[in-house]
Structures are given as C-alpha cells and as structure tokens.
Design a protein that fits this description.
The complex is a heterodimer of chains A (358) and B (328). Chain A contains 15 helices and four strands. Chain A is mostly helical. Classes of the chains: A mainly alpha (358), B mainly alpha (328).
C-alpha cells in the first residue's frame, strides 16, 4: 500500500543506488534525522542524555566499527575494549599536550592512532583464522589495558592512575569537562554518529567493502580472484579500529569524563560490543544501531522495572538482569540467528507484499 | 647452585602446579569442542557454579533464599544442618548432570547446524545466565570452600629441598593434590574414551557428526554425556580453585586463562591441553619473576595471550592440533 517501489521512478543511476530506495523508508529516515537533530537537543535532560542517548550513540559508533571487522570482513575480534582504551588515552594525551587543539580534531586524531594500533594487532590475522584469531585479539585487550595501567606516562603521572578530561569547547559551548550541558554531549556524539555512519555505509558498498565481503565469504577463493588479503584484512582492521577509537575517545572525554582503564575498558566491554552486533545483525549498519539500542536500553528498562517498579534490592536486580540478558541472547540466537536486522528485512518483505501473503 | 637459579626453580615448580589447574579448565573446553564443535565459553562459569552449589549444599543453604526473603519478607537462610563433603559432592554432580540435560534440551538442540560464532555467542549468553543464576541461588558473597583437602606448606618437600640446596621450597600441599587428581582425571578420561562403548561413540561424533548419526549414535545423548563430563571437570576445577582462593566471581575468569592454553595446545587435543597448561603456568611465573620487576609487574594478565599469539603466528594449529587444511 504505502510501502512499495511501485510509482517511485528512478531516473538516474545515483537515485537507483541510494540507500533507501523506497519512498516510505526515505521519509522515515528524514523524520528520524529531523527528530534527532532538531527536537532532541532541546528536549534532553540530564537523565535521558546520560542513561540513554549518549551511551547509545557512542556504542553505535563502536558497534559499527566492530561490525566492519566481524560482520563485513569476517575477522572475529575480542579486543574492542582495548582499542577503545587506546582511543581514550590517545585523546587524553592529545588534549593535555595540545590544549589549543579543537576537541573534534582530537577525537579524529585519536581515531587514527587507534587505527595504527589496530593494524599492528591485525597483522597476525594474515596467519591465524577463526577462533584462534578471536583469542589472539584477547592479547590486545589484556596487553593494552595493562599498558595503560602500568606505564605512568599515559596517565601523566597522576596519583590516582585515572585520567580525567579537561574542559574543551566547540563553538564556545563546553563539550567535555564538568560544565558540559546534556544537550552539548548529545549533540557532539550525534554529529560523529551521523558522519561516521554515512562513511561506513559508503565504504561498505564500495570497492573496499566488496573486497572485505569476499574475504569474509572465503578468503582463499577471494585471493584467487585477485583480492589482496593483506590489504583487505589490514584495511578492515584500520577502519574498524578508527571507529572504535573514536567511540573510546568520546566515551572517555564526553560521556564519563574520568576513567580508570580496567573498569571502563575491560573485557566485559569487548563482549558487550560483540553482543551488540550479533543481536543487531552481522554485516549491517542498521544492525549495529539496533544492537546498540537493545543492549543500552534493555538494562535501563529492566532496572527501572525491577528496582523502581517492584522495589527489589539492587544487587538482586543486577543478578536477575544478568540472567535475563543471558537468556535473551540465547533466545535471540535461537529465534533469529542473524539478528534484529534480519527480522527487520523479513518485516519489510512482508510489508511490500501486504495485504497478500505471498 | 646459585641462589637466583634456586629461586627460579621454585617459581617454575609453582608455575607447574598452577599450570595443572589451567589444564583442568582447558580440558573441559577440549572435550566439548571435540564432541560438538562448540567453543564453550561458559566452562569457567560452570566451575564457579559447581563450586557455589557445593558450598551451598555443604552449608545447608536454602537455594534462592535471598530472592524468597526479598519477595515475601521472610527470613529464611539455611536448613540448619550441614552435609558431609562427599554427599555434597555427589549432589553437586547430580546438579551438573541435570544442568547438562537442560542445556542440551533448551539451547543446543535448537542451534544444531548453526555457524560456530553463533554457538560461541550462545555459550557466552549461557555464561551470563549461569552467573546470574548462581548468584541468585546462593548469594554473591565470597565463600570458603573446604572439602577436607590438605593445605599449607608441604613439610616433606621443604626438608628434602633444604638438604639438597640449603633452601626449603614452598610448595602448597593442595597443589600436589591437584596435580595428582588432574593426572587421575586425564588418565581415566583417556581410558574412558579409548576403551568404553560410550567413549567410542564420543570419538565417532567428534570425527564426523553425520557419519556417527548414520551408524546409530545418538547425538543428543552424546552431547548430554559430554556436557556432564565437562560439568565434572568444572566441579573438580571449582573445588581446587575454590579451596585455594575462595569461591567468588573471579573464579569464572579462569576460563579466559584457559583460552591461551587451548591455543597453544590446539583446540582438539587432550594432551595439548595438558602440555599447553604447563607451558603457560611455568612461562608466566618465570616471566613475572625475571622481566616483571623491570616493567611494573602484573605481567601475568597478558603474558599467556601474547605467548600464544606469537606461537600461533609460527604454528597456526597449535602444538598438537590437527593440521588445518583449507579448500576452496
């Protein structure tokens, strides 16, 4: 009815290749963007920004990054937490060494630093595959966290071993430090998400994305048809780490403000990111968003219901939350192993044919 | 012998003992991986869960008492009696078998033929679930586990080494017991898989699922069996680690330590798990002893992974793993 390709005539190649070929999807996308850009910055309060929107946006970036590596290039990584820590510490060192540098450039530079580290730890992927690689990336996770914990240069010899973000402004508005308004936190994260999601979408449907997918599907076959595995794998590691580094920098500078590395970027964070893309859907940008939304929103919701609604003690609620999250992961994997993105595709297929079943 | 070397020997011996415990956990991984191709992340949490249940039975705790108290406002804590260790162990074993059956029925059965990464994620989900369940059932405070295993410095080794080197080695009796038990466990598992009917079926499944099915091996029974054995291994590992450092959440993290052990030894090899565990146990202790002080200590956190990583670059299938043959 309203969800049809019919009647929506494409007259140029660019129109034909657009991300949302169906008119309804396009308008939905404009609507979401309008709400996100024009309404929410004026509507968010401290609670919503800190509990929901900012973590959701930051984790979306991390999930997109990990999805590029795992979902598009097929290299399973458990080092997300470590790479986020690289982004955070790079941002910290840049902020304190160059106080005049704009925070936006700091975050982007932190992303490039992380990309370099990611390429370094991606090198073994040329020899090691599958689970062996997943465990090998744990080396990155544990080594990096240890490094930032033990080498005082990284935290500027501060007594507590923590790093905390000094105040930096964009267009005169503080976005890091204690004086930051919730809307400013939200706005800068949203800006990065929009740009990076656009970059990711266009990278993954271009030449680079196709070489990644060729490597994912069968690396030997890809090599035979002329894909250079060295270039493809390392570029995937670089791009993925760039995204994760940006997410780490934002997580530290904008969201938390002060960070203790073992706590903020531990192995749990690596698993969390992996959950996001598995539940959201491997190899899908939308999936990364859906997974991030699910994993960020669900615990908040559960906590509100159990502690706020039923009046349970917090520790009991936390244990039950673990059980429910674990159970839900299993349930989602059984019901739809390809994640929310696959569910969404099915719904769209059905909508297209509606009201007919076939 | 120079003094440094004597210290290093003591450190290496202690590392060997730790390595045995790593091997124990790794063994559970290998068993499940061989029989079902599942990379079972929840092995460490299984050990935690087993240890928690054992303590709970021993102390006569009422399961879910915390939850019941919070919901109904009652004040139940214990049944008021304590079970002897041996009965508690048998009961816990029963719980682990029940758990194996439930896991097969509720999780694995529905995930047959999925990609390995999906199965891996499912076991992470399982790990979360079991962790929450264990805490809700038995409470999350640190508990002491004592099933009557000997503990403390071994006087025999102390005196013997004192006579030899003029310096008594500190070796915990518990570590010696752990080594002996691990050896018994490995030998009996090897005998079981080589000579019993079920063991043969287990190896058949490990070799080829479909071929095993076609000659009448029940895949589902084998899976329950294998998860029960993994539960047993988890229980033994849980008892050892729990006696050593108390039953607490960090127990489940030994699973992460077992991963580099597996990589080193190869995912599919039982001897590999043992040798890998020993190499990593000794290696990380010696590295911490020699290099640790220079770089700020706590190198045990990452040494095992980096060692495994470097090793894999040269031998991607691990020490004893089957050679990886890839075809287009």
């Amino acid at each position: 009815m309203f969800y049809r390709e019919a009647g929506d005539f494409k007259t140029s190649y660019a129109e034909d290749a657009q991300t949302f070929p169906i008119k309804f999807d396009r308008y939905r996308y404009y609507f979401v963007m309008a709400v996100g850009l024009a309404i929410l910055p004026f509507a968010v309060n401290d609670y919503w920004a800190n509990a929901v929107f900012v973590p959701f946006l930051i984790w979306s970036i991390a999930a997109i990054g990990l999805n590029i590596l795992v979902g598009y290039c097929g290299q399973v990584s458990l080092g997300t937490g470590g790479f986020m820590a690289v982004g955070a510490y790079a941002a910290y060192k840049l902020m304190t060494s160059f106080p005049d540098l704009n925070i936006v450039f700091v975050v982007i530079l932190a992303g490039f630093v992380t990309a370099a580290v990611g390429v370094l730890f991606g090198l073994p992927s040329l020899r090691i595959k599958g689970f062996y690689l997943a465990v090998a990336t744990l080396a990155a996770q544990f080594f990096l966290v240890w490094l930032f914990n033990r080498v005082p240069w990284f935290y500027n010899y501060s007594a507590s071993g923590q790093i905390s973000a000094p105040e930096r402004t964009v267009f005169g508005f503080p976005v890091t430090g204690a004086a930051t308004a919730p809307w400013a936190q939200y706005a800068i994260c949203l800006g990065f998400v929009v740009v990076l999601a656009w970059v990711a979408r266009n990278l993954t449907r271009g030449t680079l994305g196709r070489t990644w997918m060729a490597i994912r599907d069968m690396d030997i076959a890809a090599e035979i048809i002329g894909v250079n595995p060295l270039k493809a794998k390392l570029s995937a590691f670089a791009v993925s780490s760039f995204f994760i580094g940006v997410a780490g920098a934002l997580f530290f500078a904008v969201y938390l403000g002060a960070v203790e590395v073992g706590e903020a970027f531990g192995i749990q964070k690596s698993f969390l990111a992996l959950f996001m893309i598995i539940i959201g859907g491997l190899g899908s940008i939308f999936g990364a968003f859906a997974g991030a939304a699910f994993m960020v929103l669900f615990p908040v919701l559960l906590k509100n219901v159990l502690v706020g609604g039923l009046g349970w003690p917090t520790d009991l609620a936390a244990h039950l939350e673990l059980m429910i999250v674990g159970g839900l992961i299993i349930f989602v994997l059984i019901a739809e192993p390809h994640g929310i993105a696959a569910l969404w595709r099915t719904i769209k297929e059905k909508l297209r044919l509606w009201p007919f079943p076939h | 012998m120079p003094e440094q070397l004597i210290f290093a020997t003591e450190v290496a011996l202690n590392g060997l003992m730790t390595g045995v415990l790593y091997s124990l956990v790794a063994l559970g991984f290998v068993l499940i991986f061989k029989a079902s191709g599942i990379f079972n992340y929840s092995q460490g949490v299984l050990a935690l869960f087993a240890a928690l249940t054992l303590v709970g039975f021993q102390d006569g705790q009422v399961p879910f008492s915390h939850l019941i108290n919070a919901t109904f406002g009652t004040e139940i804590h214990g049944f008021g009696f304590e079970l002897p260790a041996i009965i508690a162990i048998v009961l816990t074993l029963g719980v682990m078998v029940l758990l194996a059956i439930l896991i097969e029925k509720l999780v694995l059965k529905h995930l047959v033929n999925q990609e390995p990464i999906i199965l891996f994620m499912a076991t992470i989900g399982l790990a979360y679930f079991l962790e929450g369940l264990g805490d809700i059932m038995w409470g999350s405070d640190i508990k002491n586990l004592d099933v009557g295993l000997p503990q403390g410095i071994s006087p025999v080794i102390d005196t013997v080494t004192y006579e030899w080197f003029g310096y008594g080695f500190f070796i915990d009796k518990l570590d010696i017991v752990a080594t002996v038990i691990a050896a018994i466990l490995v030998i009996s598992l090897t005998l079981f898989s080589q000579y019993s009917k079920q063991g043969r079926a287990l190896r058949a499944v490990a070799d080829d699922h479909q071929a095993a099915l076609s000659v009448g091996v029940s895949l589902r029974f084998i899976w329950v069996l294998v998860w029960s054995i993994a539960g047993l291994v988890a229980l033994v590992a849980g008892i050892m680690w729990g006696t050593k450092s108390g039953v607490q959440f960090s127990l489940s993290l030994i699973a992460l330590k077992a991963l580099p052990v597996l990589m080193l030894g190869g995912f599919t090899s039982i001897p590999g798990a043992i040798v890998g565990g020993l190499i990593i146990g000794v290696g990380e202790k010696l590295f911490e002893f020699t290099v640790g002080p220079m770089v700020g200590g706590a190198t045990e956190n990452w040494f095992a992974y980096v060692l495994a990583l470097v090793f894999l670059v040269f031998r991607p299938q691990g020490l004893f793993g089957e050679k990886i043959i890839e075809r287009v």
